[in-house]
Amino acid sequence: MPYIIIGLIALSIIVYLFFKPKNKPAATQDYFISTQGQSEERVKKLDLNNASENASYILDTKRLSFPKPIKLTGEIEYKPDSEKDWVINIETLKPTSFTTEQLFKIFDKYWRVNYSAADVYGYSDKRKKWTYAIVGGDPDIYSKVQVAIDLVEIYDEESSTYDTKRLEKYITELKKKFKAFPVNLEFDGTIEQAALRGKKLAELKKEFDIEAVILLKSDKAFDGKLAWDVLQSVGLVWGDGDLFHWNNEEDYGHDQHFSVWTTTEPGYFMPEDIKDGSMNPTDLGFSFSVPRSADPKNVFAVMFDAVKYCQKRLGGTILDKDGNPFNEAKEKKYLDDLIEQMKKKGLTAGSDKALRMF
C-alpha cells in the first residue's frame, strides 16, 4: 500500500510539472516554437502590432523579376542529386525487395545519427517512381535501393581537406548493414573521383556562400519600441528566428527576400523585451544570402530603400558589412560581378541547385 501511495504522489508531481503554466515570459525561455499565427497573436497581446505609418509600398514585389517555376504534373519523384551526391546502388544478387520496415531496421538510429550526410532512396514498383525510403508514411516495398552521400556536407571545413577515409567509413558501415542480404554495392565512380568532385563543390560553396549586408548603426542605442514600429511600418514581418523578414510568397528562391537582425544581445528581437524597454539595439542589420536569393540585384535595391526609410525615422549611419561608409555604386558593382561569376560556374541565384548547395 505505501508503495502505491508513493507512486501516485510521484505521478501527480510529473503531471503537474508537465501541464503547469509557464510563468516565465517567453523572452527568458531557452527555446520556443510557434506558428506564424501564434507569433502574430503574441505581438497583438503586447499591443505591438499597429504600425504608426504605412510605408509597405517600399517592399514592392513588382520590382522583382525571376523565373516562374515549372508546374509539375503527377506525383513528385525524389532521386539522388547527380551533381552533389556520390551514389551507391544496393544491387540485389537475386530477385528480391525491401520493405519500409526492413529499411528502418537496417538504417537505424545509429546510422541516422553518425552517417547523416547520406539519404536513402527506394524505387517503389507500386508507385512506379523513386522516393525517400526511410521516412514516415504508408509502408512500401522497394525493388531498388540507393544511398546518396552528400559530397558537400561530408567535406571537412575545419581542415579544408577532403579525406577519403570519411567516404570509406560509409562503405564499411553499409557492408555491415547488408551482410545478411545477397547484395553487391555498385558505386557511381571511385572514392578518389568522389573526393575530387566533393572538393570542387566545397570550393564552389566557399567562393559564393556570401551574404549581402547593409548596416544601420547608431552612436547611441535606438529606442527599441520606435525601431520595432519603424520595421513594421516598412512592411517587414516579425516571426521566424525572432527576426523581421520580407517574406517571399513565390515558389522560387529562399523563403525570405531579406531579414533584419542586430548585433546587440541576444541578436534578435523579443517582443516582451521591446515592450518593457529592455531591448534597445545599437544597430540594425539587413541581409540576405546572394546564391539563395530569388532576385539578388533587385532585392538589394529594395533593401537599400528600406534602410534609407529606417534611417530617416531613426537616424544613424548606413555602413557596409565591414563597417565602412556605405557606397551604393561600389556595392551594386560587387553584386553584379558576383552574380556574373556564379553564372560562369553554372550557378543561378535562387535555383534548385543553389538552394541545395547553400
Overview of this protein structure:
With 358 residues, this protein is α+β, with helices and mostly antiparallel strands. 36% of the residues lie in helices and 18% in strands. The protein folds into two domains: 33-63 and 209-357, 2-Layer Sandwich (Cell Division Protein Zipa, Chain: A), CATH 3.30.1400; 85-205, no CATH class. The strands form two sheets. Strands 1, 2, 3, 4, 5 and 6 form a six-stranded antiparallel sheet that branches.
Going by CATH, the architecture of the largest domain would be 2-Layer Sandwich
**Whole-number total of structural domains:** 2
N- to C-terminal distance: 61 Å
Strand residues, percent: 15-25%
User: How confident overall, as mean pLDDT?
Assistant: 86
Low-confidence stretches: 1-30
Provide tags for this entry.
358 residues, 11 helices, 12 strands, six-stranded antiparallel beta sheet, 2 domains, alpha+beta, Cell Division Protein Zipa, Chain: A
